Amino acid sequence: MAVNDADQSNRPHRSRHSGAKKAKSDKKKKQQQRQNDDGGDEKRQNPKAFAFSSTNKAKRLQSRSVEKEQRRLHVPIVDRSYGEPPPYVVVVQGPPQVGKSLLIKSLVKHYTKHNLPDVRGPITIVSGKQRRVQFVECPNDINGMIDAAKFADLALLLIDGSYGFEMETFEFLNILQTHGFPKVMGVLTHLDKFKDAKKLRKRKQELKRRFWTEIYDGAKLFYLSGLIHGKYVKREVHNLARFISVMKFHPLSWRTSHPYVLVDRFEDITPPEKVHANNKCDRKITLYGYLRGCNLKKGNKVHIAGVGDYSLTAVTALPDPCPLPSAAKKKGLRDKEKLFYAPMSGLGDLLYDKDAVYININDHLVQFSKVDDENSAMTSKGKDRDVGEVLVKSLQNTKYSINEKLENSFINIFGQKPEMSSEAVADALATHKDNKHDSEEDVSDRDQHGKAIETGEDGDGSESSDQDEAGAMMGEASSSDDRDDDATDMKAIPGDLKEHVEFKDGRRRRKAIFGNDVDQSDMMDSKEDNDAASDDAASSDSESFKEDDDDDDDDDDDDDNDDDNEDDTDDDDMGNVSKWKESLAERTLSRKTPSLMQLVYGESTVNMTSINKQNDSSDDEESDDDFFKPIEEVKKQSMKNGLNDGMVNTEDCSKCEPSVDQRWDKKDNEGIRNRFVTGNLAKAALRNSLSNGNTEEENDEVYGDFEDLETGEKYDNYQTDDAVATTVHKGDDAEAEQRRLKKLALRAKFDSQYPFFPVTPEEDAGNDEKSKPHGQANESSYFDKLKEEIELRKQMNIAELNDLDEDTRLEIEGFRNGTYLRLEVHDVPCEMVEYFDPYHPILVGGIGLGEENVGYMQAKLKRHRFHKKVLKTRDPIIVSVGWRRYQTTPVYATEDLNGRLRMLKYTPEHAHCFAFFWGPLAPPNTGIVAVQNLSNNQATFRITATAVVLEYNHAARIVKKIKLVGYPCKIFKKTAFIKDMFTSDLEVARFEGAAIRTVSGIRGQVKKAAKEEIGNQPKRKGGQTKEGIARCTFEDKILMSDIVFLRAWTQVEVPDFYNPLTTALQPRDKTWLGMRTVAELRREHNLPIPLNKDSLYKKVERKRKKYNPLVIPKSLQEKLPFESKPKNTPKRKRKSLDQKRAVVMESAERKICRLYQHYRLIANNSEKKRKINAEKKRKELEKERAKDELLTRKRQREERRVRYRAQDKQNKRMRRAEA
Amino acid sequence: MKTEYKRLKGSQSFRQRLLLATLSSTPIIIDDIRADETWPGLHNHEISLLRLFETVSDDCLVQINETGTKLKYKPGIIMGGTQHRPHDCGVSRSIAYFLEPLILLGLFAKKPLTITLKGITNDFKDPSVDTFKSTALPMLKRFGVPAEGLSLKIESRGVPPNGGGEVVLSLPVVQSLSAVNWTEEGFVKKIRGITFSTKVSAQFENSMIRAARGIFNPLLSDVHIFTDHRSGPQAGNSPGYGISLVAETTTGCLISADTAVSHARHEETAGLEDDSKKDLMPPEDVGCGIANILLGEIAQGGVVDSTHQGLLFLLCALCPQDFSKIRVGKLSQHGIETLRNIRDFLNLKFVIKPDPQTQSVLLKGMGYGMKNLSRKIS
Fold this sequence. Notes:
The structure holds 2 protein chains of 2 kinds.
Chain A: H1 2-7, H2 20-38, H3 42-45, H4 55-72, E1 88-93, H5 100-112, E2 123-126, E3 132-137, H6 142-151, E4 154-160, H7 167-178, E5 183-189, H8 197-214, E6 221-223, E7 227-228, E8 231-232, H9 234-246, H10 253-257, E9 260-268, H11 272-277, E10 283-292, E11 301-304, E12 308-311, E13 314-318, E14 340-341, E15 350-352, E16 357-359, H12 373-380, H13 387-396, H14 402-416, H15 422-430, H16 443-459, H17 463-477, H18 483-505, H19 516-523, H20 526-534, H21 543-546, H22 550-566, H23 569-573, H24 581-591, H25 596-601, H26 614-625, H27 631-640, H28 669-673, H29 681-697, H30 700-703, H31 706-712, H32 718-753, H33 761-777, H34 782-803, H35 806-813, E17 820-828, H36 830-834, E18 842-846, E19 854-863, E20 877-881, E21 884-888, E22 891-895, E23 901-904, E24 913-920, E25 927-931, E26 943-953, E27 958-971, E28 975-979, H37 985-990, E29 995-998, E30 1003-1009, H38 1012-1015, H39 1017-1020, E31 1030-1034, E32 1044-1052, E33 1058-1060, H40 1078-1085, H41 1114-1119, H42 1137-1140, H43 1147-1218
Helix pairs in contact in A: 5-9, 6-7, 14-16, 14-17, 15-17, 19-20, 29-32, 32-33, 32-34
Chain B: E1 6-9, H1 14-23, E2 28-31, H2 44-56, E3 57-58, E4 61-64, E5 71-74, E6 77-78, E7 80-82, E8 87-88, H3 95-107, E9 111-119, H4 129-142, E10 151-156, E11 165-171, E12 181-182, E13 188-198, H5 203-216, E14 223-230, E15 240-249, E16 254-262, H6 283-300, H7 309-317, E17 323-328, H8 333-346, E18 351-355, E19 360-366
Parallel strand pairs in B: 1-2, 7-9, 8-9, 12-17, 13-14
Antiparallel strand pairs in B: 2-5, 3-6, 4-5, 9-11, 10-11, 13-15, 15-16, 17-19, 18-19
């Protein structure tokens, strides 16, 4: 090999010169170039250089990585679905005209090679060996989108690439997110509209980026490039199918805790005559679909989306119409196994009902053979016709319907062969192999059997129904119209169910038992005959005939009854019991020893198919007619009811009466000694191990002989004891070993499931040893331990369930997740049938514990950021919670720091708030999506808010602020009577002790309602007493002009209103109308918004304040010292007396005055002289200075000149010297 | 919205009906409550129980007709919380009658429950509070109830006829229980017990212990029985004494038996006035009898005694949807009634298989998947 390798000349690599790869590499290069330019690239050259150097940093990095790891983990979810999973629902959603139907058609074509004419309702397809998918097209209205989001396992969001995102996509995404986020994949269509490749690429990038921000980075976006012959490109559809088939789905918490059914078939089974009589009568409907989510139990109530809550009248498991292929070891699917089922689209060929299977055959596929001979001769082309053909031909000659014939034949039997039991006939009808058995029967009888074959083959699987018909007719004719007959009929019902299971296997389990037997029994008495008939194939040997003794026979019958549980075919045979058998039944009832479970739970009415209120009805009947009743009958009744009656009023006490005291004296102590650690442990262990053995495999016989050992106590054989002990030990060890192995297997399985592909059991077994060290390595992690625990618990449950037989399992577990169910619902409004539209899938969701009750719910709500307006308290919104959609009026609130819930008038702009609303309760953590407008043509975003339920309550404690205003009507010193604050004395009493304050800030307290004689003036005046006057005290005296406020919190009522959305009860294109908001009503009726004038903002005008002058009383002024006395006498308007009068001086005064004037003149003159002199001096000085300045400058200039000359000379000399 | 009521009859298993109705939030109507008896209608303790349910839950509706023969009950939301006002249980039944439904109810409440119950602590009819403390509470732990916050404190004791006892029960809140696989009964390794006496001589206790030990001693040495003599206000209003015994096995199963001796209630002795002053049973007989009863319980097998079967079944039924496997001795009447009630309310059936070798009964069944929905999430 190696040599060859060396020799081999490989073609040299040719790098691309154009195309996508070239562009990619160019881009990469360019990027690298840029990085090199930045110089940042050097860092990456030597990674070692950037290993951590500080321990702190290392520690930090490590802790961070661990943290990241932990953040990735989620609490493991317990998966309680044990059976085959139901098909995964792939919802195809998108705005109108984006290619949804075409995509489904293409996918269906890809899987099944069938052209789907029209996509209506869910289409189930077997897509692989392990997988089925169900395609559903999401309707375009918001209700349909909400429902579709609730059942989608995978949502394909179709986006018109040429147009871009539309609101529907985002709306649907938001709905998906609130109702648990299933897998989402975007699909871009209409990409062929782009002519320019660059533009296309750009658009793809753009859309992808937006898509990623909405979901998560790396969310899958699929491109469908265009159409070829009106279909998507085959290759691309194939790829898309691959993506769908490898998709992994994780369980969503709401769905794993609630059963639900996506209805893929819908039938109205109301009797036509009833509909004819009254077209509007309530209907009976049946709904078919796979059970998903969790197990559906008997008595579960359901919610039909858009219709309402109903209790299921009957639930039946039907054979899977689209089963997974058998697990043979081969690759891929055969064409035969590529089943699909879409009854609403009219595609599936088989329709299963409770008691019939219908085959649809397209007319062009059927070739009807002609009855006339010449035609047949032509078709057979001269060949001899073989026996089968003759038989078929003869069938075509029938002139009467089967019913008529059966009637006739019955009369025949009755007239001629009274010994022949009806059961035998029924059996004869049912069996195909009737060639050998009727040698003695006359011609007419044979004829009848021929017809039997006919019915069998004609129906192809509807034998059961035929049989029933036949049986019913026999019952009628035998005129046994007693009560017991009814009971047995009821027994037959589960038999029908079983019948189908049998059909699924494609074979009948019953052997032919008559022929000789029947004839023999003909000789016997009729009773014997019946027994024989009711015998199954196993007991068909002649045992029972040998014994003539009646009692023995009865015993046999008992045995048979016991067998019945296992062998369901017998139930059919019990179809009619004639009158004489009543006593027999009674006798057996009295004689047989019921099992413990029957003792506890009474007669097992294993009537799982019809969930009805039997007990209630029977109670009612009793109450009607039990006034006088023979005591025996009452007793009998109680026997039937299962030992329940007779202790209706027993005392309720958990401690049982101290039984007859057994004295555990020393002699007897041996019996109990082994229950103590001091006893003989080996023997005790034996006891324990026995019990273990029992629980494990229930073979009492193996250890049967040990019982003596334990009780006998005579001999103490240590040898045996030891042996036993060792075996016990061994057993223990073996058990432990087994457990360990089981654990390991589980572990391996679990680990292998981490990688993508599920492992088959064979591989699993092989993996055991290999995975062992791996498992041990992982042992430490808490998370792994948790997961392992869950897995172990699951395995244990499966083991326990497998132990049980089918009926008990059904009783205990309910219908398994993944079974195909037929649900029967009664009393459905006729509108549902009338407006049923296969384009709108019906969702039937199971209601959990307490979810049908109504109450207040508290939710954490946030207005959606796309929604334009804030939401107003008490404006109706439509919420979708759990399975339901209903309209309700929420009250928004926020929580204050002290935990008070304060009402908000509007939702906050960008924050969460609480919403309280009334409606059917949903468990905490349920997502809510709210819409306000359901209409399709609304341009804006329809989702108004998203929320999550926090808790539910029977009372909502929300408060809002209230301000009571009052006015004093009488004021004492610090007490005042306040009126107008309260309307009654009772109200005053309610507010006793409340704090109040006046506008000026004086604080006070409400004391009590004012007594009439003091406070109530009107009474004194003879008028009416006025209520609601409160006596209040203040910290200071208040004024009559004061206003008194009381600020308090008052409870806000949440309206008890909810209105279920009944969108399925009206034409789908009509918009559902519910309660309207006040704003809408106003708009409609053209009403103005009421205006409170006091609430208007007005311009504030403030007048200048005029202050009065301060007046100091005279007496005070007098006392004041002079400084403090007011002196600022105002300016006088009139002239003072001095100013008014002319003043003439005296001569002496005149002299003085003149002298003064002279002095002043002299002083002024001398001053003037001095100033002039000073000026002169200053000027001279300045002149001098200027001269000096000039001189200095001259001198300096000279000096500089000399200096520079010297320098210059020196320089020249230096230069010369250098040169 | 119209509520559909589940219709029931008679006064039997009144407590469990109320309990299961509340847990499954099914409204019920009970008809014909002792309609044909001399004292028709609901009795005092039943009324008191209804009151207790009303205190613990929010917005539940109880309507009783005039004669008390018909009851309409619409359950509310179980609130729990600290109840400051003690609940008066009356003197017609002992406190354990109330405790049995209450401990299950409290687990699924909104807030942890703390409540004081007043009445009769020890009685021969119902299990005593001592047994309750030693057996029922550990049983809860096995089903995943956290140990902290789970306690029963006996403040004072009271025996019939006048009662006067007081206990404080506090219960934690659980999200859900966990299923058990509890079939190994093991061997009895130790026996513990407690005796009490109120308003009688403390010597009574010693003689009870002596008598009981006399029976246990040949079987087991690890027997400790404690005494609890109460006097003064802690001793309640009536004289009496009693004993409660618990046998613990190697696998941790607790099997208990108890009794109490006191003067009979007035109503019971109304017919026979003459011997109302009858002497009490001598303590030696009491001790001897109770030891025998305990041995009887042990001999029956099973992981619990007959008294606690009902509780065990209920706990199993309230588990998540996993299989529980348990073993009991002979099915007691109360146990059977419990199974039937579980069937009626929760639609659950157990697979019951007798085990002839050990004379015990194996039960297995799937839980209802009960979750505490009233708890607030944040």
